[in-house]
Structure formats: C-alpha cells, structure tokens
Amino acid sequence: MDRIPMTPQGFEQMKKRLEHMKNVEMPRVQKALGEAREMGDLSENAEYDAARNEMWNLDTMIADLETKVSLAEIFDPKTMKLDTVAIGAAVKVEDVDKKLKDEFLLVGEGEIREGVDTVSVTSPLGSALIGKKVGEIAEVQAPRGKIRYKIVSFKYG
User: Fold this and answer.
1) Closest CA to 19 of 49, 61, 82, 73
2) What are 9-32's pLDDT values in tens digits?
3) Cut 0.90: pTM above it
4) In the chain, domain spans
5) Which residues contact 71 (CB under 8 A, 6 or more apart)?
6) Among 14, 53, 121, 150, which has the minimal tally of Cβ within 10 Å of its Cβ?
7) DSSP H or E run through 58
C-alpha cells in the first residue's frame, strides 16, 4: 500500500481521533448495545439494530484510521530546506485566465484545519502544485477544462 503524506499536526490530530473512538466512543456504543440486548426480543428491537449499526460504522472508521496512521509518512517543513511547494505550505495562487487569487494550506489526505482553507496534496490541485516555485504555472484538469494557476507565493510555518 502507498504511504500517506501528512503534516505532523495532521498526524497528531488523527491519532487523537483514533484514541477518542477507541476509548470513548466504542465503550459508549458497547454499553448501548448491551442495554438494547437486555430489552428482550432482538428481532424487533430498534435500539439493538441502531446500536449494532453504530458499532459496525465505528469499527469501520477505527480500522480506516488505524490503516492511515500505520501508512502515514510525516513531512515536517520545519526540518526541511524547501524552495518549492510541498506539504505544509501556505500557498497563494492566481487563476491565470480569470485573474482570481486564492490562498490555502497544503495538507495530507484527510487532514482538517478549523478556520483554514485546505487542499490535500493528493488532490488534482495539490499534486499539480507540489514541486513548483514562485512564478511557475500549475495546470489542473477540471471538468470544465484545464485551469492554470500561477504560484504567487508560499511559506511554511
């Protein structure tokens, strides 16, 4: 399986989420499942069905997060000399044709940052920006055609 690029913050966030699911959510769902079983006839027990479905969903999410954590490849811009766009960069771009500017943070797959626009490095836009320098053009194939973005600036930290 391919490694999953992540920032240190994204990796820590994912580990905390996994621990919360295992240590808080799973015991809560197991308790609800046990209480629903005690209600008797399981064939027509809506609480039991709901708890069982929640348990299945939680098991699936935990397995997914465990896989992502085990495949994580951490990129810490603070320890790297970077003169090109990479994961962890705050990037300013301009749509060459429409002259519209945008700014976002390049993050790993599944990373979320509250209050910050993010773009995954595995997305078409993110992968097109990787390795570019200020002034270079990144081309992205979109449903409406090719979009060209000029790298206006980028910074780390």
Assistant:
1) 61
2) 899 999 999 999 999 999 999 998
3) no
4) 4-74, 77-156
5) 1, 2, 3, 4
6) 53
7) helix 46-71
